[in-house]
Amino acid sequence: MLEYVLMIVPVVFLVGSVCYAYKMVVKGKSRKRAVATQIASFCVVGFACLLTSLSVFAAGDGSAAATTAGDMNTGLAMIAAALATGISGIGGGIAVGNAAPAAIGATSEDPKAFGKALIFVALGEGVALYGLLVSILIISKI
After folding, report:
1. Distances from the Cα of 93 to the Cαs of 15, 63, 104, 132, in angstroms?
2. Which of 109, 87, 110, 91 is nearest to 99 (CA)?
3. Nearest 5 degrees, angle CA 40-CA 79-CA 90?
4. Which of the residues 73, 79, 81, 100 has an alpha carbon 20 to 30 A from that of 89?
5. Per-position b or e across 107-116, b if 16+ CB within 10 A of its CB
6. pTM of the full predicted structure?
7. pLDDT of 133
8. For residue 140, what pLDDT band results from cuts at 50, 70 and 90?
9. Cα–Cα distance for residue pair 17/40, rounded to 1 Å
10. pLDDT, tens only, 114-133
11. Which of the 8 DSSP states describes residue 65?
């Protein structure tokens, strides 16, 4: 029963923080403040989940399954794969978010610039694909 609560609480907290950030933007608050709230809540939930998993690992009581060093390595590899995919996806999104409007503007002024502008948008997408490739390589080594 405790395992289910430990899985549901972070999800509820993150969904609540999304709703709070949405209400902030609707009420006219700064979008930067809403994004900062989201990042802070993600960090708090991630840190709490990490502490919870480490405390279960350190306790080693009979209620939890016996954890070995191999299980810890597997868990850390999964975290590394998730970070590689997540951070590269965020970076790729920021790159495409900045390059795509500029590409559309350049194409509207000069239709011959479409090919050159498309390359810059694709470079931003490539960052996310490289992160996904790294995470697949990490998972395949487990």
Report:
1. 21, 42, 16, 14
2. 91
3. 50
4. 73
5. beeeeeeeee
6. 0.58
7. 94
8. very high
9. 10
10. 888 889 889 888 999 999 99
11. P
- Using the Cα atoms of residue 73, residue 77, residue 80 and residue 82 in order, give the sign of their dihedral: negative
Q: What is the pLDDT averaged over residues 96-115?
A: 90
Q: Please name the residue that has the structure tokens 């006219």.
A: 28
Return the number of other C-beta atoms located less than 10 Å from residue 44's C-beta: 14
- Average pLDDT of span 45-66: 66
Is the Cβ–Cβ distance between 79 and 139 less than 8 Å? no
In this predicted structure, the answer to whether residue 1 has a pLDDT above a threshold of 70 is: no
- Using N-to-C axis directions, what is the helix angle for 31-59 and 2-26, rounded to 10°? 170
> Using one digit for the tens of pLDDT, what is the confidence trace for 35-52?
888 888 888 887 887 777
Residue with structure tokens 């790729």? 92
Whole-number Å distance between alpha carbons of 137 and 80 = 11
Q: How far apart are CA 129 and CA 126, in angstroms?
A: 5
